[in-house]
Amino acid sequence: MPSSQSPRTAVRRYSAALLLVTAASLLRLGLDPILVDKGPYLVFLPAAAAAAWYGGLGPGLLATLLGAIGALAFAVAPAFSIRPETRADWLALALFLIFGVFVSALTEKLHRTKRRALDAEASERRQRLLSQQTLAGIGDAVLSTDVVGRIEFMNAIAEQLTGWTMDDARGRPVRQVFQIANEYTGAPAGDPITRVLQEGIIAGLANHTVLIKRDGSRIPIDDSGAPIRDESGNLIGAVLVFRDIAERRRAEQERERLIRELSETRDIIRSVFRKAPVGLALCDLDLRFTRVNEALVEMTGLPMEAHIGKTIDELLPGLPAEVTEAMRQVRETGTPFHHESEGETPAAPGKRRTWDIHYYPIRVDDHIAGIGAVFQEITEKKAWEAELELANDNLKQFAYAASHDLQEPLRMITSYTQLLKKRYYDKLDSDGREFLDFVMDGANRMRTLLEALRDYWRASKDGEEPATVDCNAALETALGNLRASLAETGAVITHGDLPKVVAHEAPLVQIFQNLIGNALKYQSEAQPQVHISASGHGAQCVFSVRDNGIGIDKKQLPKLFGAFRRLHGSKYPGTGMGLALCRKIVERYGGKIWVDSESNKGSTFYFTLPLASGEAASAQQS
Ligand code: ADP
Question: Which of 512, 522, 548, 557 for a ligand 1 pocket mutation test, highest count of atoms within 8 Å of Cβ?
Answer without folding.
Answer: 522
